[in-house]
Structures are given as C-alpha cells and as structure tokens.
Amino acid sequence: MTLTAGPADASPDLDDQRITAVNPLISPALLRQEHPMTPDVAKTVEHGRTAAADILAGRDDRLLVVVGPCSVHDPEVALDYAQRLARKAAEVRDQVHVVMRVYFEKPRTTLGWKGLINDPDLDGSFAVNKGLRTARRLLLDIGALGLPVGCEFLDPILPQFIADAVSWGSIGARTAASQVHRQLCSALSMPVGIKNSTEGDVQVAVDAIRAAAAGHVFTGITADGVAALLTTTGNADCHVILRGGSAGPNYDAATVADTLTRLRAANLPERVIVDASHGNSGKDHERQAAVAMELADRISAGERGIVGMMLESFLAAGRQDLVLGRAHELTYGRSITDACLDWPTTATLLDHLATTVGTRRRAG
Ligand SMILES: O=C[C@H](O)[C@H](O)COP(=O)(O)O
Ligand SMILES: C=C(OP(=O)(O)O)C(=O)O
After folding, report:
1. According to DSSP H, which parts of 2-113 are helical?
2. Could you tell which of 102, 106, 174 is best to mutate to test the pocket of ligand 1, judged by most ligand atoms within 8 Å of the CB?
3. Which end of the chain is more exposed for a tag (fewer CB within 10 A), N or C?
4. CATH number of residue 277's parent domain
5. Residue 248 pairs with which residues in a beta bridge?
C-alpha cells in the first residue's frame, strides 16, 4: 500500500528559517546560586542606590559621579581599576558619591564587539554563559570593595542575572525611545539615567522618564528563566543624561535650563546628569576633562539642576582596536570601545569635583 502525504505534510516549514543554532542558557537562579550575593555586597548596593536616589531628589547635596571604562573587556584589569577608584571614592566621599561604570553590554551603531557578556573571549565564540558568570563575579568582587557599580541595560532578559548587584542603571542613546526599555526601567530596583538620542533629541529622554515612572505589564523572565508576565510599580528615580549628539555638545547652560523646563512641564524632578564623553566630547577623551572642569565652575557658581556627571575613564588614556581572537596583543588598561581618560587625570578630576562641592556649600 502506498501512503500519500496529507495536507499537513505538504506545508512548507515556516518556523526558525533564520536560526542556525539553539543552545542552553543558564538560568538567573543558577547563576545567583553559583555567585551568591553576600551581606557586605548587599550593603554596598543598597547604600549606592539610596545615595544616588537622595542626590537625584535633592536630599543629598553631593555630586553623583559615574566613572569607569567605556566597556569591561578583562575582569582582572577592571578589578585593578576598581581598587584604585575605591580608594579615591573613600577620600572624596563627603562631597562625591562615586559609582563605577561597569558596562558589559555595548549597543553598536552598526557592528562590533557587543561586550563581555556576549563575547567574553573576544574572539567571536560568543560564550554567553561564561560571559554571564564572569560579569556577575566581577560585580560581586567590586561590590566587596565597597564601591557601588553602574551598568547599561540593553538586552531586557539580562537584568535578572545581575541587577541585584547594581546600584545605578543606564539606558543608552540608541534605546531611549524603545518601549521595551522604558518598561524595563519601570521594573528596575535602582535609579536609572536615560540618555538623549544620538541626534541630540532631549525630549525623547524626558518622555522615557515619564513612561518609566508609570507601572506596566509586559513579558519578561523569572529567576528560573521562565517566560512570565511582569507587573511593575514604575520607577520614580529615572533621570536625564545629557550626552550631546550629532549636532554637537549639549552641556551648555541654555540646554541644561531648557531640559529643566521640559522636565517641569512633564511634572518631573528638575535634575540632570551630564555625560562629559560621547557627543559632549566629540569622543575625544582629552575634551572630557575640559567639559568636567567647565561644569565644575558652573556648579560652584551655583548653577542649578546638574546633580552629577559621567566620565569614561580607564587606566591608560585613549582607545585601541580589538582584533577578534588576538586579545593577548591588547595594551593593559586601555579601552577597546570609546576613548577614555587615564587614571591620573581621573583622580585629579575627582579631587577637583570634591573641591567644587565644598565651594558650593560654603557659598550656601
Ligand atoms: O559607548 C560606546 C559607543 O559609543 C557605543 O557603543 C557605539 O559605539 P559604535 O558607534 O563604535 O558602534
Ligand atoms: C553607549 C554609551 O553611550 P551612548 O548611549 O550615549 O552612546 C555608553 O555610555 O557606553
């Protein structure tokens, strides 16, 4: 007897036409079990979050400074940097609340290395489970130094793996308009800075803050890695980061004042953080110091609204190109994404920002 194919067998395969591999992903719960939160790190995280929220709300008159490499590509180097920054942060703690940039996810304009979680071996092997383990371990090691950390959140699944160890979050210029990211912010347990667009549109960040302040219902994952519907309260601690744009810098007093007006119009707290890098430095790391010094002068002269700064800083100045698979050729402590200030310049700037806050205090 000959079997003839029924209509179902004749149907073309419609699924997964462009997926070439499906591999297991560890669950957030498993990662948290392997690298558990400790009481000391929890204290650092909690203190880092509360201090940032207090500064943003005007309850604490210190400056919030988010400083560190554009991206982490080697956890040992990042820890070396963190040890130096932790000592400096302790010295300036009465005037400056220091949060280390520990960025594991890089949003690319087109293509490029997408960060330590996506490709921890820097060779295109995309060992994501290893990347998650390395990232979480590093966050805990830095937290153990008493130094709070800040991360950019890009993939909406990934916060479940690391967010408990993070004191401050960021949404980048390329995702500020994304509803997915605004919903994510509404769920995050820490203050989140949202950047103006790469073109320099500030309103998109103000709109994002409004959206993130509201509660949402959206799809995400649980700690066990199972898809779920999440219902959120909204995050009242989101704030604008002015990062400049393709039209040029936007840290000038007029743009800061215009941003505060937009925030007031949206019934939001009139506070901004200024990113001294990216569009505000034209990606010239040396310019960052000049931007920070100009902001310091304006802050000590009493300009209102600027409650913090972001600096891209690493051990060595500038940047270098990564050749995939040849990470062993990289210079120690130099960025493989955007150019950074070197450590001595960073330490001097942090001292200067501490003096700035002291001057502003004395002026009342
Ligand atoms: O901060 C880092 C970069 O500016 C951002 O990830 C975009 O990088 P790219 O333009 O080199 O892709
Ligand atoms: C990607 C970053 O910045 P932006 O989103 O402003 O380009 C960053 O701060 O690493």
Report:
1. 7-10, 28-34, 39-57, 75-91
2. 106
3. N
4. 3.20.20.70
5. 245
State the DSSP H helix or E strand holding residue 341, giving kind and residue range, or none if neither.
none
Among residues of the chain, what percentage have pLDDT more than 70? 98
Q: What are phi and psi of 361, to 5 degrees?
A: -60, -45
> Ligand 1 within 6 A of 246 CB?
no
DSSP state of 340: B
* 3-class DSSP state of 135: helix
**Residue 285: burial class (beta carbons within 10 Å; 0-12, 13-18, 19+):** buried
Q: What is the model's pLDDT at position 12?
A: 87
Angle between helices 343-363 and 285-300 (to 10 degrees): 10
Q: Is residue 13 part of a domain?
A: no
> Token pair for residue 133?
């383990």
Domain-embedded: residue 5: no
How far CA 34 is from CA of 24, 136, 140, 360, in Å, comes to 17, 10, 12, 46
Q: Rounded CA gap, 284 and 269, in Å? A: 31
- pTM, rounded to two decimals: 0.96
Residue 279 in any domain: the answer is yes
Q: How far apart are CA 322 and CA 327, in angstroms?
A: 7
Ligand 2 atom at shortest distance from the alpha carbon of 174: 5
The β-bridge relationship of strands 227-231 and 217-221 is antiparallel
| Structure confidence by residue, pLDDT tens digits, 98-157 | 999 999 999 999 999 999 999 999 999 999 999 999 999 999 999 999 999 999 999 999
Is the distance from the beta carbon of residue 190 to the nearest atom of ligand 1 less than 6 Å?
Answer: no
| 3-class state of residue 97 by DSSP | strand
